[in-house]
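Quick note —
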Amino acid sequence: MSALLTRQESAIRTAVLCIAQYHIASTLSEQFMAAGYAVQLEKPGDGLFERIVRHSPGLVVFDGEADLETSLGIAHRLEHLWVHRIVVIARDAMDRLPPTWLDAFDDILPMPPRPAELQARLAVADRLYKLENKLRRSNNRVEEADRIIARVNRQMLQDQFAVAKIQTALLPSSLPAISEAEFAWTYRPRAEVAGDGLNVFRLDEAHVGFYVLDVSGSGTPAALLSVLLSRQISPFPVQSTLLKSLVREAPGYRLNPPSEVLNELNRTFPFDSERIQFFTMFYGILNIRTGNLRYAVAGHPLPVLTHAGMPPRYLIGGGYPIGFVDDAAYEEHQIDLCHGDRLFIFTDGLSEAHDEGGRQFGPFAMLQTLSDIGSGDLKDNVLKLFSAAEAWCGKDGFHDDVSLLAVGLR
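Predicted structure written out below.
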């Protein structure tokens, strides 16, 4: 027997025998040691569980004739410690086993044990112990992986909160105070962070610039590109801005036309094939003294113009999203706005908002809503258009980031 189960081959190094009768304990002790086990003897009685655990055993043998209720309780407690539990009983009592034994013990050993019988049972115990150890190591690896994932998720969440704070800081905190024009906006990210961005700013005493952009994708990568773009599409500082160029003639700078701005962005932000990342954009420059609006569009939804006494209509324009075509040349358009004219610029999260059945809010509902709204407070009109699209979506609300900027000529 010892030749088949040596100490080196056995995964279970310590066996605790909890046997009251000396001759049985002595016999089993010799047989277990011959099988390669380090044997510890513990008499049944008070503190038995603590005495067993002190030895860190892989196998425990209980006496089926002594204090059975205590043995059953200890056996159940040892189950959670990955300990193999055997109970010994007289061979002629094997047919009268209580059902509770089958739940509490892994094996039942008739006494006196036959050598081949004991060898087979110990071999099974050894294999079970090895499998349990393998399972325990696998569980430990899974738990460690879960801890790593949880830690990474916490870090990602912290990163998202940080990006969200930056995005919020880059939104217009105050709108240009201009007697000739007014502005209003609303912004609703789908998650903590968004790929949308918008802003409106003074370029000089006579001009206001504004844009709305939408980065493809979602999550932190889209939000980071949105933040980068929002920082770059800024009129300050003059010396290094995308929107102004230094010239020798007074006043020392020129406003870069919207088409040039989009061309430069297209060169600076080529298509990211790894992330399949690009962005759409509307950029306009309004001369507040004359009402002349110059604008360019890069794959972005066309804005809607409302004019007193006339139905709302979409502006003309087009062009590829930024990054789609390396040498894309963006076209500039112009329109003269009049007193009372209003321009509504938005991302596709608004125009393509859809209900539970997939039906989009769409261009016609957009025009009809703006026609129904009519004139009134610009901020109120922005919120009414936003609310109409949101109501269209139903209980699930918007399925994408939504940005809406309105420009009105007083």
